[in-house]
Amino acid sequence: MKFAVLDFETTGNQSADEIIQVGLAIIEEDRSISRVYGTYVNPGIPIPPFITSLTGITDSDVADAPELEDMMMELVPMLDDVVLVGHNVAFDFNFLQNALDRCGYLPYSGRILDTMHFLKICFPSLPSYQLGMVASHFGLEHDRPHQADSDALATAQVLLKCLEEIDDLPLLTIQRLSDLFADEDSDLAWFFDGIRTEREHQSIQDLDTYTYFRQFALAVDDWTEIAPVRNEEEPNPLASVSFDEYMEQVRGRLRDILPQYETREAQDIMIGEVVKALDEDKHLLIEAGTGTGKSLGYLLPSIYQSVKQEQRVMVSTHTINLQEQLRERDIPLLTKAVPFPFKAAVFKGRGHYLCLRKFEHKINRRDFHTPKEDVITAAQMIVWLTQTESGDDEELNLGGRRGDFWDTVASDSDSCLGRACPWFRKCFYHRAKHEAGLADVVITNHSKLFTDVKANHQLLPSYDRLVIDEAHHLEDVAGKHLGLSMKYFTVTHTLTRLYKDSRNGQLPALRQMLSASAEEKATQWIGVIDRLYPDLITVKENWDRLNELLFGLIPDRGDSGESGQLTMRLSPVKKPKDWDSLAEIERQIYVTLGECIRKGEQLAAEIKEELDDYGADSLITDITGLFKDLASHREGLHQFMALDNEGIVYWMEASSNFKSKSLQMYAVPVDVSAQLKELFFDKKRSVILTSATLSVDKSFQFMIDSLGLQEAAEEGQLHTVQLPSPFNYREQALLVIPRDFPSVKGTVGDPKFVDTLVQSLAQTAEATKGRMLVLFTSYRMLRQVYEPLKEALSSSEIAVLGQGVDGGSRTKLIRRFQDSSASVLLGTSSFWEGVDIPGEALTCLAIVRLPFQPPSHPLVEAKSELLQQQKKNPFMKLSVPQAVIRFKQGFGRLVRTAQDKGIVIVFDTRVIESYYGKYFLYSLPGPKMEHMPTDQMVPRIAEWLNHNKKNEITNDESLLQ
Fold first, then answer.
1. What is the pLDDT of residue 276?
2. In angstroms, rounded to a whole number, what is the distance separating the alpha carbons of residues 221 and 212?
3. Cα angle 899-900-906, degrees, rounded to a multiple of 5
4. Which residue, among 594, 589, 583, has the nearest Cα to 640 in the 3D structure?
5. Which residue ranges does the record assign to the Helicase ATP-binding domain (predicted)?
6. What's the pLDDT at 557?
């Protein structure tokens, strides 16, 4: 095969736009790149400014360039007898066909391949498939992104990487891929068919590299073969070793592994406090700011304690991100640093693991909802099986809508065959469970912690000592899990997976299988299935109607959150009018669904007993699982609609854009402190809670109250520690408050406020050369500022990125912000924490308003009412502490390393004018604080930055001397 890799730069992406540059790289049959052709093209029209800023191509670059016809005369001969390749090739192919047509050539009719498809299939775990990111991941030179010749060469090198990867795949995987695409009338089908034919004529290699099972090549063997990490006959490696001796050895090894390693005071204090709490069976609240190194601060004592006492320690994080960071970064480091073998296992919720039985079933039946996308996802996963040892979806870059695919192949308890499953010994979920059972330290997440509690501790291995990281989220997660939440789509997906129409769904698939079987009862069973269809349709129609009516109750209020979020609280005391007619619809759903579930489960049990066929077994298991899901949805809905418990807050949320299809129902306990006390602090010997933000004005009382630790505190069972900051905030951070800044009521700024804010942000951004993160508490205010700020900065080449305005996820926006030399990023609630932008990329953090939660949010409202009944002040006991913790989280975005320096601007003058403002300022880790008139702010910021620059230069010079 000879490939021609094509890339165009154009004046836009509509078919009427013009080509301004072309790049073509030719790959010969021996896989050498023999030629890279590139030229500008004169488009005959001015180049739009945003294209110039993206590509760097100006009108003067193309002024003397050849016109389209002249360029095509050179290009067309090079496209003879080649396979055309591009990165997102449809775009370039469209422009090529257009140009061929305009210049009087026949259309291109050869084969076309897309490197996007190849990358997804060959490298299923790449974090991004964007060309620049891929090039840097592979260490390819790509010095002029968005210039056609550089893009074409980079794409050609990426294609060669993919072809090498395909060469290394086992033959069985190639055959699977070829079968998968065979039904597609596509050039990928032609390509894999060719590779298969070629490989089948070679002698077979790689028989020992993979495990072959049921026509798949896997990277893992049976999990039943995994042995404990230490031999039980041998003496305990810590039998006569004190904790200090152990730490001495660990530090020695850390110095060997990391030449720049030095002990940190705060981390040493933390290690001592954690081991003391574990040893004395006490609970501990420990606040550890950024830079403490808190993961090692609790992991080192946990490893010592669990190995010495032979009792495992459970570690729980709030985010999967932190769980991954512990897996990828901290555990491998400690495996080298700890002087004896230990095992730390990561164990997530079941839905994160691939169910091999469901995957095999889906592929063999080609059960694809959106065939074009699903076939690529299936191919990605077939290749991933040759690489993954955990089967964890976090390793897969599924992008976009393909999460729907994952839902149909994820492991779940309701459709698990357990030991009866042919895949049992290879099962990823049971592997993770087995490894957790063998581990000294198990790393899970808050969500799984509560799922385990609800399942009577059947999911996690037993533990008496627990470390909770990111503990400021515990109360929130507890509420969600100890309560109830239901989405419109959760129920709809379950119903449509059972029965979408006469051809799609698990019941029609079963019907089809039965009609082809010789079983004498088949006709009778088909009759049952046919009678189920109308009932399921009725349930779906009632469910849709109920959601529409519930959505109709929600008043459309002014500021509706980040993306038009609307909320409404429902009160058990005062139900909305016409609630009875809604309850009647729910009753009909309850009755009809009850009948469906009864018949469905009975049918499944009967078929399973009488029909001995693995294909049918697999299908029956999935159908039984779906009926079980429906049963739990039915109970959940019944509970929600009953509105009969005053200790529960009931509310609905929806988006004004997607209306009733986005409806979510919640029923959450107002106060979870008693349950947390009972489930954890009374039952466990030692619970360690840590986070960067646990205290308010140097006191832990807010956390003690909300987590149910008051009794432990009174009985001397609780120790609280606030660690000193490892950073010199006085030198590293300046906090500025413009004291005459206009104030604002509510979530919308008046014209004066918005104008002053835009002007101040624009001037500051010029002084800091962009590199600025602006945090809002209201999405509407972010939108009010976005366009005018863009306008104000248009002449200074500083880009403005806005959450929810510029497409893409939070991660994508942060990446764009980090990659761009000068930009301002506007974010709302999800940017206040968990965003890590160390170094030069972030110099200035602007906080527009103090992050109070909207008092009208149902949960806040109910908690406030409860405090009022207890004769407490809800504002001081709830609103202020919550806002202070969020404010500290926001502040923590700025200084992430000992080298970071930066400015924080607080535009909300309540921090200096109100009686509660001091709680915000006193809770910060000691930056330099100044307030001044707004017009003096930018000169002061410039002066502080310059002074710091000079100091750095002086320091560098003194180092050189």
1. 95
2. 9
3. 155
4. 583
5. 253-530, 275-536
6. 57
290 is in an annotated binding site: yes
Residue with tokens 């002040």: 873
Distances from the Cα of 633 to the Cα of 349, 414, 696, angstroms: 19, 13, 40
Please check whether residue 723 is in contact with residue 708, taking contact to mean a CB–CB distance below 8 angstroms: no
Count of alpha carbons within 13 angstroms of residue 130, beta-carbon side: 11
**Phi/psi at 64 (nearest 5 deg)?**
-100, 15
pLDDT at 402: 61
* 292 labelled ligand-binding: yes
Per DSSP bridges, beta strands 83-86 and 33-40 are unpaired
Residues 872-895, buried b or exposed e (16+ Cβ, 10 A)? eebeebbbbbbbbbbbbbbbbbbb
Global pTM?
Answer: 0.85
Which residues of 731-875 form beta strands (DSSP E)?
733-738, 772-775, 799-802, 823-827, 844-847
Task: Determine the Cα–Cα distance for residues 488 and 506; give it in Å rounded to an integer.
Answer: 20
| Type of residue numbered 163 | L
Q: For the chain, what percent of residues have pLDDT higher than 70?
A: 96
DSSP letter at 852 equals P
List, for residues 848-899, the tens digit of each pLDDT value.
Answer: 999 988 777 888 888 988 888 989 999 999 999 999 999 988 888 888 777 8
Does the annotation place 289 within a ligand binding site?
A: yes
Residue 659 DSSP label: E
Report the alpha-carbon distance of residue 220 to residue 534 in Å, rounded: 45
| DSSP run (H or E) holding 625 | helix 614-642
Confidence grade of residue 958 (pLDDT, cut at 50, 70, 90): very low
Distance CA 394, CA 353 (A): 9
The whole-number pLDDT of residue 721 equals 94
Helix (H) or strand (E) holding 720: strand 718-722
Amino acid in position 506 = Q
Q: Extract the tokens encoding 535.
A: 């009932």
> Does 636 belong to an annotated binding site?
no
Instruction: Say if residue 505 carries a ligand binding annotation.
Output: no
Give the DSSP H or E segment for 357. Answer: helix 356-365
| Whole-number Å distance between alpha carbons of 910 and 884 | 13
Q: Determine whether the annotation assigns residue 288 to a binding site.
A: yes
